[in-house]
Design a protein that fits this description.
It is built from five helices and no strands. By secondary structure, it is mainly alpha-helical. The longest helix has 29 residues. It is elongated, with a radius of gyration of 17 Å.
Amino acid sequence: PFSTALLGNYVSHPHDRVVAALVYGSVWTFGAICMTAVFWYASGPRGLLRAGYTPRRIASVRMASTVGPVVFATFTALALVNFWLFFAGFAIVPVYYALQGSRRGDA
């Protein structure tokens, strides 16, 4: 909530919005890194995932989980070039996940 409020408060201030965007993007990037680390830990040698996942499926999800931190870091870096590209990048994230969920029947 803090980083979202910060971005919302400073979106209309040209210089300050870049700083707010960097904070917002850093929070997303850090969160994605943490989620990826948790999955990698759970799917590691200790076998903390429930039974039924094939090694191939685990490897596939591990590779897919590394995309989030890279994409979020890229969107964050875009704030230094063009705030509106940063904004558009993060605006499409919920749309992407909503479409992914509807394809699987989760949404």
